[in-house]
Fold this protein.
Amino acid sequence: MPLIRSASVNLLVEIVLRIGFLSAFCYMESMPPFIRVIQPSELHDSCKFPRHDSYVPTSTLWSIVLSVPCILSLLAWAFCNDCNDALEFLLAWSLSLGITGVLTDTTKLIVGRPRPDFFYRCYPDGLESPNLECTGDPADIMEGRKSFPSGHSSLSFCSLGIASLWLCGRLGVLSRGRGSGVRVSVTLAPLVLASCIALSRTCDYHHHWQDVLVGSILGLSVSTFCYRQYYNPLSSDNAGVPYIVSTSNVKYFNGKPDISPVKEKEETSPLLKKEDKWI
């Protein structure tokens, strides 16, 4: 099937926009957050949890966030013979990931909420200084003030959430007239993985439960919004079909684009019919 969205100004703008979001996200990652005043009661009640290594390290998170959508895109291109769906899915996913990253870091920098283990980031030896000034590593302390919302939660629900939406549309979970446990299970699998990643941030004391909840809602909301910019509603007859395909009169058969040649109709005219009749 030929690529409908070929090299054009529109596609160039889409790519430049994503580069801009990526650049802003990388720059904001190194920015210091707002230095919020932490009361002694808050420091001892909600920020004195022990330090623990991440159950889902950042490298593992990015491996999942980047690999799952790319694998689904390859499936659409290789097995469904639909390069348009593969491209539109990558555009929707990359846009949602860029917006989620920028929104997450913007909120982190403005709020400056301390993490649950901030006390031991501030005082690694467990002893408070007389003037309450932190004695730990400055970079560790700065990172300890970026608790709200959870970046692991927002990014995982963004990437895996749009993967779940794509599977829901491709498998016709909401547009079919009958139920299918297998289809539902496959569709929900990415969301279960995203939930495990998000909940792990409360187990290693890197985030409060509010951080995880808001981050998850943020990532899933942005992914749903961006998915609908490129794809038809999940409950419609064109569920899983990109707008650019459905508006180009390309028909689908069993989840694949129908690229069979169209048979030309035999030319007929009243003159031929009259001649046939007279003969």
Strands lie at 252-253, 256-257. The chain is about 60% helix and 0% strand.
